[in-house]
Design brief:
- With about 90 residues, the protein is an all-alpha fold.
- The protein contains two helices and no strands.
- Helices cover about 95% and strands about 0% of the residues.
């Protein structure tokens, strides 16, 4: 029974090897978790930056749409005014 309780030399080195592998695996796990956390923080920062840039572009698009609409209305009024002016001039000729 005493021999069962005491590990033999080969078992001892096997246990040490397994412990070393477990420690290395835990170290790699912690490194991977730290890298994951760092990457997630960078992604969050990039997403925030992109959201800000997207909102700026959306504001620009709205501004240009408003300018385009105003220009189209101005052209429409000018055409209508010119049609009226042509009609008046034709009436004056008659």
């Amino acid at each position: 029974m005493a021999s069962l309780k005491r590990p033999s030399g080969t078992e001892s080195s096997e246990v040490k090897s397994l412990n070393t592998r477990a420690v290395n695996a835990e170290r790699r796990l912690h490194n991977a978790q730290n890298q994951l956390l760092s990457t997630e923080e960078r992604i969050a920062a990039l997403n925030q930056k992109n959201a800000l840039a997207d909102s700026k572009w959306a504001a620009r698009v709205k501004e240009y749409e408003a300018r385009l609409k105003a220009a189209e209305e101005r052209v429409k009024r000018e055409r209508q005014g010119s049609k009226e002016r042509v009609f008046e001039l034709e009436n004056n000729l008659k």
